[in-house]
Amino acid sequence: MPRIKRIVAPTDLSPHGKLAVESAVDYARAFKAEVLVLHVVVPQVYQSEMPEMMMPPMQDISAERVAAARKRLKEWQMGVQKGMPKGVAIETHVVESTRNADAAICEFADNMDADLIVIGSHGHTGLLHLLLGSTAEHVVRHAKCPVLVVKPRVPIT
Q1: Is residue 151 classed as helix, strand or coil in its secondary structure?
Q2: Which of 9, 103, 118, 120 lies 20 to 30 angstroms, CA to CA, from 76?
Q3: What pTM value is reported for the model?
């Protein structure tokens, strides 16, 4: 069995994402691995019904979202590391992508030579799954390394 040295933990900054990061940290403890926490910023297209309304350039909106994500991930990193044994490393990464988050996660994990991806799932079924899709499902299908999908035991509200 190959040794697990690097774990990628993608997060959408939701409670489900936080659960996945915490699970990745638990696995890192067991395997003496490092954790790369990843947040993907995907551009959002804003359409105004009022053409005369001025919108800031998209790169400015994206830059604000990246800065906010970096700040939030650093806060998580500090909180998670308080209870961690010495020698377990957590790095945070924010990646901008013009594609879907799942493609960016797979590409990041491949580029970083990840041995495992630990990703959260919202557990949507039926119409919500059809409308929203499943990032975790796409990562499972396309990642080159093993993927562990973490679901909460009880619904997160």
Answers
A1: coil
A2: 103
A3: 0.79
